Amino acid sequence: MKIGRAEDFFRNLNGIQLRVLDGGYAAGGLEWNGSVNAPPYSRLYYICGGDPYIEAEGDPVRLEQGWCCLLPAGFSFRFACRTAMEQLYFHIQLVDDTGIDLLRSCREMLAMPAGEERIRRMRSLTDENSPRASLGLRQELYGTLLSLLDAGGVELSRTVCSPCVLDAVGYIREHLSLQLTVGELAAHAHVSESTLEKTFRAEMGQSIGRYIDQEIFLKAESRLRHTDLSIAQMSAEFGFCDQFYFSRRFRERYGLSPRQYRRERPI
Question: What is the spatial distance between Cα 144 and Cα 140, in angstroms, rounded to a whole number?
């Protein structure tokens, strides 16, 4: 008997994970209006009704009832509606075992018909709190992503990272704080600071400082959505000198103060 072992196959099969950071059903009117600048996660919308639209470069693109669209991580856009908006929404990351979001390979909005019956089925699944419903919903999300990527001709690619970068990324996630230094990370990864900085920028496409900021504010956004932690508690957790500096940095990134963000909860 012969058994073939394809290590890359199993690495891809078991190492790619869909993270659903937030999601559900939303409906509103003209208050659904704002902008998103280089988000750290992707948004997946299923349009149930209304007349919402997205504007990036050029003319607004109306999101038709029964359609779905993907707004990938890193893609800046403005959102609004002319009278009303009704949709299912999901904030997602498609990460590999290094924690890198594969959807960053996508550089533009993707949209296609999803079918009103399918959207109704998905809404029913979001209302049902059971393991079976969760599996069904996850299957629908994976299917939508594959269809959108195929329609857009988008190929997902995985970055092969050096051991020092993987060590640094793991350490950042375990000790997430504004107080982390390149020296501390380099010592953990057993390389010089210059080697780590150069390799990290080349393989991750950004500086270490920017990556730390991204991870901090992604966690902070989740805390605001899903916990009752005070702004002062979050500021201390992430190593800011005080809550006012944390709030200023948050507003620079999201256009809202942490308190406004928690109250308005943009989707």
Answer: 6
Question: pTM for the complete prediction?
Answer: 0.84
In sequence order, what DSSP letters do the residues of 123-179 get, joined into one string? HHHHH--SHHHHHHHHHHHHHHHHHHHHHHTPPP------HHHHHHHHHHHHT--TT
Tens digits of residue pLDDT in 30-82: 989 888 887 889 999 999 999 999 998 778 899 999 999 999 988 889 999 99
Domains 10-152 and 163-264 fall in the same CATH topology = no
Spans of all domains in the chain:
10-152, 163-264
Six-digit token string for 169: 């990324």
163-264: CATH number = 1.10.10.60
Classify strands 42-55 and 77-95 as parallel, antiparallel or unpaired: antiparallel
Class of domain 10-152: mainly beta
Phi/psi of residue 225, each to 5°?
-80, -35
